[in-house]
Amino acid sequence: MASALRTEERWLESGQPDPVFLGMVEDFKAFDEVLQTWSEKLEIFVRGVQELSLGVQSLSEGLAEELKRQDRAFLSEGCRFREAAQEISRRDAPHSVIARFERNVEFNMSNPLKDHLDNHAKLRKDLEKRELCLTAVQDALKQVELCEELTEADLRKRLAKDEFRASKATFNKVNRSIFHWLYVLEEHRGDIIDSCLQTVKYLQYDFFSSAAHAVSHVLPQQMSFRPMTEMLPDSLQAQVQQELNLSETIEAQDVREIFVQRLLQRLVRENKDRPGAPATSTPAIQVDPLSLSSLLSHGFDEGPARRALRKTNNDTQAAMEWLLAGEPACRARTTEHRA
C-alpha cells in the first residue's frame, strides 16, 4: 500500500490523475451498487417470507373452521394443523419459525449490510472532499508554474509555493484515509460477497426446514399422498369402474374355482367307491370372498391370501397372522424337501 501511495504522489506532481486509484474507485462504486441491490432484495425476501407465514396461518384457520362446520370427524386434525401453522407464523412467540427467522436476518444480514452501506456513504463524501482538495492542489500547481520565471526572493513565488505545499498536505491527509479504505475493500470484497451469499442460503434453508419440521408433527406416521387431481369426478368415475371390473373378475374366478372344487369332490367320491382306490387328500376348502377381499385391502397378494384362508378355514384374523409370519408352513416344507 505504501508503494501505491508513493506512485500516486508522483502522478500528483505531474498534475494528472492516478489510473490505479481511479480503477479502485470504479471497483468501489460497483461493489456499493451490489450491496445496495442485495439490501433491497433482502427486504423483498423478508416481506415474502412474512406474507408466506401469514398465508399458512390464514389457510390453517380457514380449514379448521370449515372442517368444524362440515365434518366434526376432522375437527381434531384441523386443530392440530392450526397449531402447527401458529408455530410457524406467530411473530409474537419468541421461538416460532418466523420470529427466529427475523432475528437471524436482522443480526446476520440487515445490520451488517447497513453498516457496510453507512461506511460506503461516508467514503463517498470523503471522495467528494478529495476531489475538492485535488482541485485546490491543481490550481496551486498552476500558480507555481506561472511564477516559474520569477526569482526566489519574489513574494508571489513564495506565496504560490506555500499554497501548493499546504494544499498538497491537506490532500495527502484526506487521501491516505480514503486509500486505506479502498485498499481494504479491494482485498476483502470477494469475502464479503461470499459471506452474504452463504448467509442468505442458510437463512432460506433454516426457515423452510424449520417450517417443514413443524408441519411434519401433524402428519400421520404412515401416509400415502393422494393428490387432489385424483379426486376429480372423472378420475373417481374411472377408479370406481376399475374396482367394479376387478370385483367382477374376482367373482368369475370364484365361480370357476367352485366348479373345479365340485369336480374334484365328485372325482374323490367316485374314487372312494372304487375297490382298492388309493387314499386321496382332503378337497380344497372354498375361499370366502369377503375374507379374501379383506386380506386384499390390507395389501396381500391374491395367491398367498387364498392359501392362507384355505389353511385357516376362512378365519380372516388367523390367515392374516399366518401371512404376516411369512407362511411358516411353506418354509418348513421347503426345508424338509432340501433335506
UniProtKB/TrEMBL annotation:
| InterPro entries attached to this UniProt entry | AH/BAR_dom_sf, UBA, UBA-like_sf
Could you tell me which residue ranges the UBA domain spans?
Answer: 286-326
A Pfam family hit = UBA_7
Output the superkingdom of the source species.
Eukaryota
Protein name per Swiss-Prot or TrEMBL? UBA domain-containing protein
